[in-house]
Amino acid sequence: MNEEFSKPYFNELKSKVEEVYKEESVFPARENILNAFSLCPPDKIKVVILGQDPYHSEGQAHGLSFSVPEGTKIPPSLRNIYKEIKSDLGQMIPESGNLERWSKQGVLLLNATLTVESGLPGSHQGIGWEIFTDEVISKISSKKEYVVFILWGKFAESKSNLIDNNKHLILTTSHPSPFSAHKGFLGCKHFSKTNTYLTSHGLKEIEW
Questions:
Q1: What are phi and psi of 166, to 5 degrees?
Q2: How far apart are CA 89 and CA 119, in angstroms?
Q3: Which of 61, 110, 139, 150 is surrounded by the fewest CB atoms within 10 Å?
Q4: Residue 53 falls in the annotated catalytic set
Q5: How many whole angstroms separate alpha carbon 26 and alpha carbon 123?
Q6: φ and ψ at residue 104, rounded to 5 degrees
Q7: Contact (Cβ atoms closer than 8 angstroms) between residue 203 and residue 80
Q8: Local confidence pLDDT in tens for the 208 residues of the chain
């Protein structure tokens, strides 16, 4: 992914982001923008879970899709994710919404857009982040084998054309938000399916 940082589009994106951080309240904190890659470097990636953009309320976003920092109230989508894990794997629902433990096992928690203005969901879509994250997805697909791509909702599903499904497993269903979880997400068994696929290719399963 490092080669992307020197490309003209990324330099332009970096300038835009630096300006908005000076002028607006933007999430996550600047040092956490690339947190997903810090906690799950490219050579460790086994699973990619794609979100759209960061949480836009104070204290929630910390650079990992669907995750919130320790001690923060668990958001509704993540609560539904935990419900599905309980149903699928019989695990107790955790009290913490911090998913760093997944990242450290090889789960890249990637948002398509990596920054957002306070209270304005989608506000940084179209400024260049999607060029970067599309390249990330494409490179993971081309350079690695046997990665599970988990795409929840129509937006995430639209990225499936970037992935070689002969080399990887693509899992799709509705988004876990309360508005759509009942349309396929609840009962999808994506967590057990992921582990079955990983172990069938000699890879260690994820402790969800």
A1: -85, -20
A2: 35
A3: 139
A4: yes
A5: 10
A6: -70, -15
A7: no
A8: 778 988 999 999 999 999 999 988 999 999 999 999 999 999 999 999 999 999 999 999 999 999 999 999 999 999 999 999 999 999 999 999 999 999 999 999 999 999 999 999 999 999 999 999 999 999 999 999 999 999 999 999 999 999 999 999 999 999 999 999 999 999 999 999 999 999 999 999 999 9
Q: Is 117 helix (H, G, I), strand (E, B) or coil?
A: strand
**Crossing angle (nearest 10°) for helices 76-89 and 190-200:** 60
- Among 26, 62, 65, smallest CA distance to 156 is for 65
Q: Are strands 47-51 and 148-152 parallel, antiparallel or unpaired?
A: parallel
Looking at the chain, the number of H-run helices and the number of E-run strands are 7, 6
Query: Catalytic pick from 43, 53, 88, 134?
Result: 53
Distance CA 107, CA 31 (A): 20
Residue with tokens 């650079």: 63
Which tokens is 166 given? 């002969």
Half-sphere exposure of 156 (CA within 13 A, CB side): 22
Q: What is residue 26's three-state secondary structure?
A: strand
Name the token pair of 118.
Answer: 């306070």
